[in-house]
Amino acid sequence: MTGTRSVPLASLLVLLLYVFTSHAQLTANFYSSSCPNLETIVQSATQTAVGNNPRTPASLLRLFFHDCFVQGCDGSVLLNDTPTFTGEQGARANRKLQALDVIEKIKSTVEVSCNGVVSCADILALATRDGVVLSGGPSWTVPLGRRDATTASLNEANINLPGPSSSLSSLITRFASKGLSLQELVALSGAHTVGFAPCRAFRNRIYNDVNIDPIFANSTKANCPVSPPNGDENLSPLDVSTPTAFDNAYYTNLLSFRGLLHSDQELFSNGSADSIVQSYAASSSDFFTDFAAAMVKLGSIDPLTGSNGEIRQICSTVN
């Protein structure tokens, strides 16, 4: 009996080793010798960017999430198209990406002190954390050591990135494919406590969904005409209560059926995520704790480490 059970146990150990390899290769002190002032430099540059544009934290969160969900956290979303590949910025879910210039500016600042040392992928991870903190959200230790991809994929972006009309079951499947649980899905969705979305992303919800507060729907229609393309790019806040503050109002809005996107309200619509939404609406500290932990896990999805990839000199182009 011992012999017959040793094989699956060995297989399990190999699987666990594979799953946690990426986590082990990223460390908080990765640049302690090669770029000791990195976090101070990034924090200062991010603070300047947020001061210039309060929407920057939300834009950074979107960039980071959309980077990690396609090829892993490798800075591929930052790449412009080249003659050899069509990048991710033209994907349906990546229309109107913002803060690409912010990452480029931070990278150039870092290069002055630490030339050719720090990846664009790591700069994006740090700036995203700093943007959340500057908006009033939680902080967390960012594991570092990612390297930059030398290619990107429009097709993978279109396949992997969830859209604003996604169902709960579709969201669960997409997140599970990246090793993220239902609770982590709900916690990470709380990033929508900051930022804005264009009319084209929520038009169908405010005119056709039934699980929506009618007063909220009517007030939102004022900035989003029923017939496209009229008003397609008109913006409305994802969190109508506190659109630039990182708090748990996103979840209290869902309880009142005031989620702007269909995919947001799916988290509270008589489904398996309802109790998690209720818990975060009741406790901002629980949300902050779980969000920080989920961001660390998100940032550990399939990074390039060691000799894989490269350290880009300019984030938008390969060396």
TrEMBL record:
Substrate binds at residue 162. The keyword Ribonucleoprotein does not apply. Disulfide bonds join 35-114, 68-73, 120-315, 199-224. It is an enzyme of class 1 (oxidoreductase). It catalyses: 2 a phenolic donor + H2O2 = 2 a phenolic radical donor + 2 H2O. It is found in: Secreted. Residues 1-24 form the signal peptide. Gene3D superfamilies: 1.10.520.10, Peroxidase, domain 2 (1.10.420.10). Removal of H(2)O(2), oxidation of toxic reductants, biosynthesis and degradation of lignin, suberization, auxin catabolism, response to environmental stresses such as wounding, pathogen attack and oxidative stress. Residues 25-319 form the Plant heme peroxidase family profile domain. Keywords: Calcium, Disulfide bond, Glycoprotein, Heme, Hydrogen peroxide, Iron, Metal-binding, Oxidoreductase, Peroxidase, Secreted, Signal. Ca(2+) 1 binds at residues 67, 70, 72, 74, 76, 88. Binds 1 heme b (iron(II)-protoporphyrin IX) group per subunit. Binds 2 calcium ions per subunit. This is Peroxidase.
